[in-house]
Amino acid sequence: MSSRFQSAVLGSSPLYPSAVVWSDENLVAVACGSTVSILNPANPVVRGVITIPSSEPFPLGVIDGGEEDLLHGCLLPFHLSRDARPCVRSISWSPVGLANNAGCLLAVCTTGGRVKLYRFPFCEFSVEWIEVMDVSEMLYNYFKTTSFGESQIISSESSDVAAQDWQIIPVSGRNGKTQEKVSADCNLPLITVQQYASRSAMLMSLTVAWSPILGTSGNGVTIPHNSSTYCSILAIGGKCGRISLWRIHAPEIYSIDSAKSSSKVSLVGLLKAHDSWITAINWALYEFDVSKPHLVLATGSSDGRVKIWRVNVEELLMSSEVIHDSFSLLKEVMMADSATISVLSLIVPTQTPWKLLLAIGKGSGSIEVWILDMSISKFEKVGCCNAHQRIVTGLAWAFDGRCLYSCSQDNSMKSWILVGNSLCEVPNPSHSPGLKSSPDVPYVFDSCFGLAVSPGNLAIAVARKYDVDLLNPMYQGRTHRAAVEFLWIGGQQLDMSSGACPDIDNESFPGLPEKVLIWWECNMLWSLSQYENPSRLLNIWDIVAALLAFKQSAPEYVEHILLKWLTSYFGSQFGNSSTLLSEAFEFLPKLSSRQLHLINIISRHVVLKERKADHMSSKQQELKGLSATNEQVNLWMELLLSSENELLERLVGFSFSAFLSLLSNSSVDSFEVGCGSLDGLRQMEQWVSHNEKNVKDHSKFLAAKVGKVEKR
Question: CA 213, 218, 224: angle at the middle one, nearest 5?
Answer without folding.
Answer: 40
